[in-house]
Amino acid sequence: MPEGHAIHRIARDHNRDFAGQSLIVTSPQGRFVLGARRINGETLERVEAHGKHLCYHWSGGQLLHIHLGLYGRFRNHRSPPPEPRGQVRLRIIGEGKSFDLNGPNRCELLTHEEWRLLRNRLGEDPLRDDGDPTVAWRKVQASRAAIGSLLLNQSILAGVGNIYRSEVLFLLRIHPATPAKYLSRGQFDDLWSELQRLLQIGVRYNRIIVAEPEAVGRPRSKMRREERLLIYKKQHCSSCGARVHSWELAARTVYACSRCQPHPRANREVARP
Fold first, then answer.
1. pTM score over 0.85
2. N or C terminus of the chain with fewer C-beta within 10 Å?
3. Is 3 annotated in the active site?
4. Cα–Cα distance between 64 and 149 in angstroms, integer?
5. In angstroms, rounded to a whole number, what is the distance separating the alpha carbons of residues 70 and 116?
6. Are residues 154 and 216 in the same domain?
């Protein structure tokens, strides 16, 4: 499933390529025909992202909600686009560019109230200007779950996925099994800041990049796939060389270095608020 940086990148690109235009909207697959008819010919005002959700605001007051899920993907074209490929749920055609949407988890029209309620169920998004770390901190402090679990909980921090989870905890030397309530406010603020930084890099380069250019010896734009990450799916720690451990946490595989990220049971000096 795409992580938050990819969704914000899509919102940024679609604002650039389609906002302010009267667009042709169809559903070649047929599963979104009625919704497509309601917004066909309307002007797209703006696109916003919250976590892993996209919302397209139209001049007629309609809101188009898209959640890609595991299998959804966008295909970009020049206008006019080629014949639809596969099961295209949504096709949008603009003046110079167009896109197809295949296999989303959600593609639906919402009222403003429904979008508000959906957003209220989501956690704070580090990439949004209105993201509030204090709100997220209160939820973290009230939980008995491991911080590695909470990072995948979209009602606490929206947009963080499995790769960013392992990488940010490694950078901060926090074991994923550490009870979230044991984090100090300083540690949480560092976590929030680091997520913001990494996600912003992800938006800029349209890929997850955690390694620093100085360590790799090449700019981020030229890093090879195996050079971009520090801990996720690695055999050995990029910092100390110790073996990387992996296990299932919150139904996804998490990665950590037992030397750089001591398990809380072995570390009696876990910071407390």
1. yes
2. C
3. yes
4. 30
5. 24
6. yes
